[in-house]
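# nightly structure sweep
# worker-07 picked up a monomer target from the shared queue
# config: single-sequence mode, recycle default, output format = structure tokens
# input follows
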Amino acid sequence: MPSWTKLGLALCICAASPARAGEIAGKVEATPAKYLDETVVYVEKAPGTFAPKTYKMDQKGMKFIPHVLAITVGDTIQYLNSDGVDHNVYSPDNEGYNLGMFPKGQTRDQVFKKQGVYSQLCSVHPEMLAYVFVGQNPYAAVVGKKGQYKIEGVPPGQYTVAVWNSHLKAPPLSLTVTAGKAEANFSVKR
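# output follows
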């Protein structure tokens, strides 16, 4: 094969390979700090179509576990009752739903068709509360106990990165993602 043909073939292969995904990571500080664990950092809009996934949320110890879950439009949550008492799962938010009462060991599924935040409630145990954050894309992360987060697999490009918190606010940031790591830090306040 002539060398010019090999060079052309190499250029075609390089041009056809997709750009490497990047990572957005950083830290969130909350004032007051008691709301830090109710925080999601997310990419507002990203191109692409995303295959639906199924997540699990348990009802255990009279709590929803996890307390905050970040998913994508079209995803399903399978709710499990691990307590020795009947529970209910409902949300008045967005299109709203009520999965009815179900005993220990049973599950109920809910498909989320709209973006937004859904409070998760139990009609017989009003102290139970959790949140489901439904984004346009899967590039979101629930903030850890020390405020750290990491969003992996983000395609290279220019994005608006925002933060959702159950009680606090912070302005969004404009961020360029490359094959490496991009940093975005937030301070959420009243």
